[in-house]
WDR64 protein (Certhia familiaris), 173 residues
Amino acid sequence: PLLASAHESSCIRLWSIQGNLMKELLPFSEHPSGPLTALCTDIFTKILLAGSKEGHIIRWNMASFLEDSRNRKNQIKEEVSWRAHATEVVELFIEEEKNVVVTASIDGSVRLWHAMSGYYFGYFGQARMFELSDTSRLILPPDVKDFPAIIKEESKHMERKKIEYPLMLDRDK
């Protein structure tokens, strides 16, 4: 078992039950997600989802990391991110049987998304029924203009690095 904490700096920290820091995650995306406001995992803790103050959802695959967290080759991979709401995400959960993510925002909307791709299915209260089997229709809610960003495996994930900026003039450069 492990604990996850979300922070205003967009960082997620994974902790052991003993309180030791195991890993720090930063989202890898073009647009900064902003402060994180919601976290959830699937029942086996292989998928981690985070919601942000700016309305983004980020999905990580933690399966290989959880198998052996000491092996440096086993990384947590960010797989997809998408803009789910125009305002802050206050709650989210994954429904594994139907493979959907449900998100709620401070704007009062509750929306349904495909868990693997981030495709929009609709919102609670709409007149038409949800069509969960068709993920080929690229529709978006009216207040969101960006399609989901699939993160390629070869992308370098951002990790905090200590960088020093000495205040000295280097005439050779």
